[in-house]
């Protein structure tokens, strides 16, 4: 008879299992999201400093002011995809640490800049750091999060990219109320240093994957975009038909054409242009880009309008736009449900129409517009933005096979930052040109809006009122131009999205191959290999070629 357990002997109990992720893993989400918030705060907070910069001892011209605002975003956007490839190849944690170090260095240089050239250099260094931070945070977050928790973690990260702009206003307002414009950079630099330490201590190392750095393609993309923006920003000052402006446009288009040609010929391109033969991908990237054009057009002029036309203090200005977050969050939460019911095409085009409506309504504001009505207008715009973001991301991801989820992340990020830079450049150029044409002769030349209003103050209330009216009229023109751009893009998104996704936003099953059976990432007849243009880890995301981010990449090496 087999022995029986004594009643006095307690039964064996299993080893306790943790109810949640280990303490080190719990730090991943807050540290990565805080890093994303930091780089996005810098995008928006500088707009609050425009009046102070305009009146500062640096004496920037209108075009120099635009370059100060845009230098960070231009470098950020241009380097985002190459920076993702650097992180894939040399280690995501190392890339994040390098990015935070560069961000801190650039903010410090900006805080002590004695002139415009040094300030521009500081802004560019900060932008290079931000480009390394953004894709590395998403990649680390995906690899360190359990599959069951991954969707919510990614949603939180995505929301941080949008909320960062609003937080920039909330932080910038109090800082600039009590400190000069240099204080904005002096406050953010230590935050970057603290996050550097937290990243080094708390974040895990992630396996590397093979990724092509494609230096030729990277240089062509960044310089081409920079040349086009030079034409947009300098057009009002130099004249749209001047040799330098036309030369900038011609050089930019030639460099971007060379980038496309290089991508078609290269064995491992940074970004294979054939990807954009997929209408769903084109629609998604264009929708995200144009949504950020509209949002950052608002961010660029908002502080100037509230301070110059409404007479708000910089502190009140910083908090006055925060309710915009209500529309953004509500739109984002609604978008997820609506995409599941009606598909990405319907939701994204509806959101873009709402952005265009918000921009048109903003073109109606003037010195007599009540603040509650202003809030209605900006909430309409922000709700549209909230609808577009998840819907367009769905379109991009649905257009690519699962193993290229990282490329989708990189394209999403690049479209966001390119849109931010274009929104500031286009709106700022229209604003400057129109304001100069409307400015009363007594106020003198419009070297900057702030200087013109300062001069008008000294010339009496009549000249001041006419100058403010010239500013609000110019602002209205800028909003209408951007609204028209959004409407044209909405029509293209609607056409390109037709048949690209199913009724519930799912891929139509053709995402894995190009028309005619050609594999993306290589020319016809050549077997595809993982590259920066085709790998799943470019700019963050799941490891290639497996759709499961936890699976080991075939060419992965030691974690970094």
Describe the secondary-structure layout.
Blueprint: H1 23-26, H2 28-48, H3 50-54, H4 62-90, H5 92-111, H6 116-144, H7 150-178, H8 182-202, H9 215-238, H10 243-265, H11 279-309, H12 314-320, H13 324-342, H14 344-362, H15 371-398, H16 405-438, H17 449-458, H18 461-496
Biased composition (Low complexity): 1-10, 540-560
Biased composition (Pro residues): 11-24
Subcellular location: Cell membrane
If you had to describe this structure to a student in words, what would you say it looks like?
This protein is mainly α and 560 residues long. It has 2 domains: 25-214 and 266-513, Growth Hormone, Chain: A; 215-265. It has 18 helices and no strands. It has helices spanning 23-26, 28-48, 50-54, 62-90, 92-111, 116-144, 150-178, 182-202, 215-238, 243-265, 279-309, 314-320, 324-342, 344-362, 371-398, 405-438, 449-458, 461-496. Helix 9 runs parallel beside helix 16 and helix 17 (449-458) packs antiparallel against helix 18. It is globular, with a radius of gyration of 25 Å. 57% of the residues are buried. Mean pLDDT is 77; it is low at 4-21 and 501-560.
């Amino acid at each position: 008879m087999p022995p029986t357990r004594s009643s006095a002997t307690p039964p064996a109990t299993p080893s306790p299992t943790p109810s949640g992720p280990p303490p080190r893993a719990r730090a991943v989400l807050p540290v990565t999201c805080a890093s994303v918030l930091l780089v996005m705060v810098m995008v928006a907070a500088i707009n609050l400093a425009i009046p102070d910069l305009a009146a500062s001892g640096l004496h920037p011209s209108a075009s120099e002011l635009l370059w100060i605002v845009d230098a960070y975003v231009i470098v950020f956007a241009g380097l985002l995809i190459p920076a993702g490839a650097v992180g894939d190849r040399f280690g995501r944690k190392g890339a994040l640490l390098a990015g935070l170090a560069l961000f801190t260095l650039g903010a410090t240089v900006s805080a002590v800049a004695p002139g415009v050239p040094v300030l521009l250099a500081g802004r560019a260094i900060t932008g290079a750091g931000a480009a390394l931070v953004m894709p590395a945070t998403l990649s680390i977050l995906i690899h360190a999060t359990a599959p069951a928790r991954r969707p919510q973690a990614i949603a939180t990260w995505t929301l941080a990219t949008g909320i960062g702009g609003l937080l920039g206003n909330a932080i910038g307002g109090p800082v600039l109320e009590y400190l000069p414009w240099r204080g904005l950079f002096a406050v953010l630099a230590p935050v970057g240093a603290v996050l550097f330490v937290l990243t080094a201590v708390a974040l895990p190392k992630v396996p590397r994957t093979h990724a092509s750095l494609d230096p030729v393609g990277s240089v062509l993309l960044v310089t081409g975009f920079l040349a086009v923006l030079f034409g947009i920003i300098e057009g009002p000052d130099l004249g749209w038909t001047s040799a330098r402006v036309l030369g900038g446009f011609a050089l930019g288009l030639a460099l971007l054409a060379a980038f496309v040609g290089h991508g078609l010929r290269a064995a491992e391109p940074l970004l294979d242009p054939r990807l954009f033969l997929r209408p769903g991908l084109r629609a998604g990237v264009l929708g995200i880009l144009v949504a950020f054009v509209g949002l950052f057009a608002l961010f660029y002029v908002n502080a100037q309008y509230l301070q110059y036309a409404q007479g708000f203090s910089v502190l009140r200005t910083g908090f006055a736009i925060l309710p915009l977050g209500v529309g953004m969050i509500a739109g984002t939460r609604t978008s997820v449900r609506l995409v599941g019911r009606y598909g990405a095409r319907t939701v994204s085009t509806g959101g873009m129409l709402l952005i265009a409506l918000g921009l048109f309504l903003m073109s109606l504001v003037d010195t007599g517009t009540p603040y509650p009505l202003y809030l209605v207008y900006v909430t309409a715009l922000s709700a549209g933005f909230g609808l577009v973001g998840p819907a367009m991301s769905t379109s991009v991801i649905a257009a690519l096979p699962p193993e290229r989820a990282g490329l989708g992340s990189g394209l999403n990020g690049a479209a966001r930052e390119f849109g931010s830079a274009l929104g500031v450049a286009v709106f700022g150029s229209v604003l400057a040109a129109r304001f100069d044409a409307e400015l009363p002769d007594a106020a003198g030349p419009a070297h900057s809006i702030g200087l013109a209003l300062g001069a008008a103050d000294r010339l009496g209330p009549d000249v001041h009122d006419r100058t403010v009216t010239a500013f609000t009229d110019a602002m209205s023109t800028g909003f209408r131009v951007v609204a028209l751009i959004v409407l044209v893009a909405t029509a293209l998104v609607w056409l390109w999205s037709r048949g690209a996704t199913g009724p519930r936003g799912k891929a139509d099953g053709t995402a894995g191959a190009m028309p005619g059976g050609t594999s993306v990432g290589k020319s016809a007849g050549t077997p595809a290999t993982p590259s920066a243009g085709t790998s799943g880890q470019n700019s963050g995301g799941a490891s290639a070629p497996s759709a499961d981010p936890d699976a080991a990449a075939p060419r992965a090496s030691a974690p970094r």
